Amino acid sequence: MSKRELIEPTPGDKRYARRDEEGRFTEMVDVGKSLAQDQRRQAKHEAPKGQGDRGDRRH
Predict the structure, then answer these.
(1) How many distinct structural domains can be found in the chain?
(2) Plot region of 38 (φ>0 → left; ψ -120 to 50 → alpha; else → beta)
(3) Tens-digit pLDDT profile for residues 13-28
(4) Is the pTM of this model over 0.90?
């Protein structure tokens, strides 16, 4: 499982992206939507560093 990296394809449009072994993008999600969804849910499990979308974060 690869870590997420923050990319900004155009100014003001930040996204979290994952790459496969060849360096191609496999997943991409908007930063604002990702952070908003994290805040709406109560954490049950800790996510490893760099894997925030694969688990929960405690606030």
Answers:
(1) 1
(2) alpha
(3) 888 888 889 989 888 8
(4) no
Per-residue tokens: 1 = 């499982």
Distances (CA, A) of 46 to 8, 25, 28, 30, 59: 27, 25, 21, 21, 11
Q: Identify whether the C-beta of residue 6 lies closer than 8 Å to the C-beta of residue 19.
A: no
pLDDT, position 25: 87
* pLDDT score for 49: 72
**Residue at 33 is within a domain:** yes
pLDDT score of 6 = 85
Closest CA to 7 of 39, 38, 30: 30
Phi, psi of 28 (to 5 degrees): -150, 135
